[in-house]
Design goal:
Blueprint lengths: L7 E2 L2 H21 L6 E7 L3 H16 L3 E7 L5 H13 L5 E4 L9 H7 L11 H9 L7 H12 L8 E5 L6 H9 L8 E5 L6 H5 L4 E4 L17 E4 L3 E4 L6 E4 L4 H4 L5 E2 L6 H22 L1
Parallel strand pairs: 1-11, 2-3, 2-4, 5-6, 5-7, 7-8, 8-11
Antiparallel strand pairs: 9-10
């Protein structure tokens, strides 16, 4: 049996704080140069508690770096037509540099219609088909905040990706597919050999044990166990779940990885919470600043 390894914690909260400080300096310089601050807007439909918490976190983070933040709240029974009209309004509002539509949306609204309606130049979430296409082609555009955050975290911890085997669990358009493309591209944080796994993958544990870098976005709490990873691997946990616990809240937050098991075998590991989540928000702010700079260059 191989010797246990105590993993180095990849602190997304601390790393995101550094990125936000960098953004804050740039925003302050813009204001000093008699330019207005960047403006990020969010559309929130319904009263999903997780969505409300997430939007509040984005709003607080934006204010913390000097970015103007607006939230447009709509009731659960909002129609698709009404939501598309709200998107048209923000598309035309020259004071708004970028905006997001918080997902999930109520069942009466077609998500694809909504995303396609957003002006790609203001799509700081990077979900519009045009921005997704640019990402695939390696062209400048907005990249989804979570995949961008994962790549940035690897970069800041000086994790070598070139020639490494990356295994991605989960093929969603929000995380799994984009991050697999980014890490395979011919870039300084790419050049990896990437295997994308999903619910139909056979012999999954055999594949994950070959990973130098394992990115877990499978949506199942504590799915990845110590026996599924190679000793010394880099483990990035994208999942976030509430599970029952005997504490004051009645629950605790866990990821897709069984942290207590895996942290004694991995070389590096992200915690949940405090890993990928804060990086996602930081990269959204970075995209908002970028949208503002692009608009004023044109």
């Amino acid at each position: 049996m191989s010797e246990k390894i105590t993993a180095i914690l990849m602190d997304g909260k601390k790393t995101a704080a550094k990125i936000k400080e960098e953004i804050k300096v740039q925003v302050a310089q813009l204001i000093d140069d008699h330019d207005e601050a960047p403006h990020l807007a969010a559309i929130l439909v319904g009263d999903d508690p997780a969505s409300q918490t997430y939007v509040s976190s984005k709003e607080k983070a934006a204010h913390g770096v000097g970015i103007i933040s607006s939230v447009y709240r709509y009731p659960e029974d909002t129609t698709e037509t009404e939501l598309l009209a709200a998107i048209d309004f923000l598309n035309e509002d020259e004071t708004v540099d970028g905006f997001i539509v918080q997902l999930p949306l109520p069942e009466q609204i077609n998500v694809d219609h909504v995303i396609a309606r957003i002006n790609p130049d203001k799509d700081v979430d990077g979900f519009h088909p045009m921005n997704m296409g640019k990402m695939v082609l390696g062209q400048p555009g907005f990249v989804s905040a979570t995949p961008a955050g994962i790549v940035e975290l690897l970069k800041r911890y000086k994790i070598e990706t070139e020639g490494k085997h990356v295994v991605v669990l989960g093929r969603s358009n929000i995380v799994g597919s984009p991050v697999s493309i980014l890490l395979a591209q011919k870039t300084s944080m790419g050049n990896a050999t990437v295997t994308l796994c999903h619910s139909k993958t056979q012999n999954l544990a055999e594949i994950t044990r070959t990973a130098d870098i394992l990115i877990c976005a499978i949506g199942q709490p504590q799915f990845v166990k110590a026996g599924m990873i190679k000793a010394g691997a880099v483990v990035i946990d994208v999942g976030i779940h509430r599970i029952p616990a005997k504490n004051e809240q009645g629950y605790r937050i866990v990821g897709d990885v069984d942290f207590n098991e895996v942290s004694f075998k991995a070389g590096y590991i992200t915690p949940v919470p405090g890993g990928v989540g804060p990086m996602t928000i930081a990269m959204l702010l970075k995209s908002t600043l970028e949208a503002h700079l692009r608009k004023h260059k044109s």
